[in-house]
Amino acid sequence: MIKSGLPIRNLLRRPGRTVALVLLTAFLALSVFGGSIVVSSLRSGLDSLQARLGADIIVLPSSARSKVNFQELLLQGTAGAFYMSADALDRVREVEGVELAAPQTFLASLKADCCAVKVQVIGIDPEADFTVQPWIAQSTSRELGDMDVAVGCKVNANAGESLKLYGQHCHVVAKLAETGTGLDTAVYCNMDTMRTLLIAAEAKGVTHKISSGDGDVISAVYVKAADGYDIDGVMAKINAHVRKASAVRARSLFTGAADSLAGISRTVSILAGAVWALALVILLIAFMMMTRERRREFAVLRLLGASRKGLSSLILIETALCGLAGGVLGVGLAAMLVFPFTTLIETKLGLPYLTPGMGTILLLAIATVLATVLIGALASAFSAHRLSRTDPGTTLREGA
Amino acid sequence: MTKTKIPAIIILVLSLLLAIGSQTFMGACVHDDGSLGACHWAARVLSGIGGLLAMLAILALLVKKERAGLYLAMVPTALLGVFTPGTLINLCGMATMRCRALMKPAAMILLAFALAAALIGWLMSRRNHD
Amino acid sequence: MLRAENLSKRYFRKTGGANHFFAVKDVSLELRPGEVTLLSGRSGSGKTTLLNMLSGLLTPTDGKVWLDDIDLYRMDDASLSKLRGECIGVIPQGRSAIETLTVLENILLPQQLCGEKGDAKAAEGWLDALGIAHLMNARPAELSGGELRRMAIARALASSAPVILADEPTGDLDDENTALVLDLLHDAAKKAGRVVLLVSHDGEAARIADSLYRMDGGAIKVEREAL
User: Fold this and answer.
1) What ranges in chain A are assigned the alpha helix state H?
2) Do the beta carbons of residue B88 and residue B36 sit within 8 Å?
3) Which has fewest Cβ within 10 Å: A272, A277, A282, A347?
4) pTM to 2 decimals?
5) What pLDDT is attached to residue A158?
6) Same domain flag for A309 and A371
7) In terms of residue numbers, what domain contains A108?
């Protein structure tokens, strides 16, 4: 049947019907591929966030606002600043079961040269740090010296350029790989640089007063629990031992995000399922109507030597070709809607969002096209069977 | 209606979306202090290019003999629009800003389709000796 | 040779007196190469049902159909369909064009369904012989009833099938074209040695027939047999 070229000629010479079928299957493919990419990106973002945090416990200042600000920074990149005394670090290190403890200090910039918005400046101790350092090391072998900064991928500055923060010139030594989290809009420096920036910030009227008054300040301590110790137990000990600070499980900071992701995933699945069920019904109705319309055509084909199997395969080939064209079109349209607007989707959802790798994208695309072809074939199978059983003698005599 | 008018209709819709959208739903950043960023001017130029494409499309619908030439003129016009945001006129620095996250990709997609439609329209018109 | 042996076709009635009736009853018939056989009879006498059984399209309730030494109804559908495409050219009653193909493509279709490319030149020759060569690239929707009928005849003649079964081939045709078609069918039998069966009410058809049969109530009666 393929050699006769009949399937292709039938499709090309009935453009209205062909276009309708192709558009319907394109809509199917668009919903599935688009939905899959969004859900997959959300999952990748969440995994990335978990990997990036790297710590078991995070110690924050005890005010309730701190935890909220920290979550907003991680998930949405909203710049914030909250402080506690640097003594808290020493007290955390004294707690039994704490293997590693690394401080971080936060500062929200004014609108920097680079950017029309605030960026989050994060000071780390390169010697103690175990979360950010490995990530920086992927982009540069150079250590963060004084007035050196490493920037997240969404900050508008590249390695080798200069960045002005609170009037201070900083040298960009590395641009970090994308994480799909709020950390992509952060700027990292060492503690000496942070101290300089804090002083410059005070000079510009931005205060960071804490209740203890003078002395060094930090914003968070990242804690890795030692092997064999219960993390909740260590967390409880930290809460008991360190004043004016609150220890939380790192996992709990993105429980909300995980729940949102589950919710979105469920919604996308339900919507995609509804679209497919509706499309299947529409296709079934369309093919049943077509059965009536094409009875005479199939009777003639039987007359001229087409077998029942040949007639079934004619319909299935036509449907498969429409499904293939629609699948490719739908995947292409979905790609145009999802990939250029990645940043917008991330901002609007307020969740970590990391586009999966090319391998995953290709696999999803191929699976979507195959599924579209299969559903078309399924919808047409009954009609194909019925048409192949057409009685040519009776059919041709009708309307003779 | 002749088939060679169809690309012009498509381009008219796309260009109106670009012209109006660049000033509204896919417009430039709104700064807290009311200042205008570079992206504001990029949005203005995109609106202008959208308007120009719309006018060329309307002319192509009305005029038969010069239709091929009008389609051809839409090609460099669309290309000008492609190079406007980010290349000819700067946008805001951060990737999360509205001009980079929404305006630029939306404009690129609209202009890419307009460009493809213009090329197809030109080929069709030439074949029909319009 | 195409031979029918005690062919019967019974249908079951949904309404009326008896619960079944015989559209064709115990028909035996021999169609020889080089001969034109005419089958006539009133409407509803079973002519088309008999023709459909002879062409392998309708399984008989009883009896057999032999094409040379091949029992048609012992074959599976794929083999029978292939045989029909290669060996039996059917000209059915009514409209029998594929609407999405041009006239020329319709003519070449039987050969293409058998996996061949089709002889376009020969097909054009047949279209010319039937006076519709100028409609070669037209679609069936643009043709009149008479032109469609001539297209169906050209399709059967172009296929080189050794058997031609024609159901009312001159319906929709004027006198001139009727004579032309009958001459071509006569030549197909006499010059090309094909088996030709005509089902027709047309009085003109009798002039080219070697054998004449009449059907009435599903049964067949010989009116004139070929020598």
Assistant:
1) 6-12, 15-53, 64-76, 87-94, 133-137, 191-203, 231-241, 250-253, 255-293, 295-303, 308-338, 342-349, 358-388, 392-397
2) no
3) A277
4) 0.81
5) 87
6) yes
7) 63-243
Q: What is the ipTM of this complex?
A: 0.90
Q: Which of residues 7-46 of A touch C (CB under 8 A)?
A: 9-10, 13-14
Query: Does residue A1 sit within a domain?
Result: no
What's the pLDDT score for residue C156? 93
pLDDT of A235 reads 92
Residues in chain B: 130
Residues A232 and A264 in one domain: no
pLDDT for residue B128: 78
Which of A72, A117, A153, A175 has the most B C-beta neighbours within 10 Å, making it the best mutation to test the interface with B? Answer: A117
Residue A397 has a pLDDT of 66
Domain presence at residue A377: yes
Question: Burial level of C144, CB count in 10 A (0-12/13-18/19+)?
Answer: exposed
Low pLDDT (below 50) residues in chain A: 114-116, 210-213, 400
Low-confidence stretches of chain B (pLDDT < 50) are none
A292 touches chain C (CB under 8 A): no
Partner residue opposite B95 with nearest CB, options A154, A336, A340: A154
Distance in angstroms (rounded) separating the CA atoms of residues B53 and B36: 26
Across the A/B interface, how many CB contacts are shorter than 8 Å?
Answer: 50
CB-CB under 8 Å, C97 with A303: no
Report pLDDT digits (tens) over C180-221.
Answer: 999 999 999 999 899 999 998 787 888 888 999 998 888 888
Cα–Cα distance for residue pair B38/B31, rounded to 1 Å: 11
- Name the token pair of A124: 């780390």
Closest-CA residue of B relative to A154 is B95
> Residue C85: enclosing H or E segment and its boundaries?
helix C77-87
Q: What's the pLDDT score for residue A208?
A: 61
pLDDT value, residue A70: 80
Q: How confident is the model at residue C165 (pLDDT cuts 50, 70, 90)?
A: very high
The CATH architecture annotation of domain C2-224 reads 3-Layer(aba) Sandwich (3.40)
- Nearest-CA distance A353 → chain C (Å): 50
Q: Which of A122, A138, A197, A120 is nearest to A165 (CA)?
A: A197
Place of tokens 């540069």: A140
The answer to whether A154 and A176 are in contact (CB under 8 A) is: no
Please name the member of A3, A302, A393 whose beta carbon is closest to the beta carbon of C48: A393
**CB neighbours of A332 closer than 8 A, spacing ≥ 6?**
none
Considering chain B, what is the average pLDDT of its residues? 91
